[in-house]
Design goal:
mainly alpha, 3 helices, 46 residues, single chain
Length: 46
């Protein structure tokens, strides 16, 4: 995110996330699946 923020000329990665987080709605589920695969457990995000 830091690289994207710098490329866009934003002052911080936090600003970039605030502006663009809505275009990545599936990331919570994707992150939960990745963590689940790493620890070998089911992780459910609702």
């Amino acid at each position: 995110m830091k690289v994207v923020s710098e490329r866009l000329g934003h002052a911080s990665a936090a600003f970039t996330m605030d502006v663009y987080a809505h275009v990545m709605p599936g990331q919570q589920a994707d992150a939960a699946a990745a963590v689940s695969a790493l620890v070998g457990r089911s992780v459910i995000i609702q």
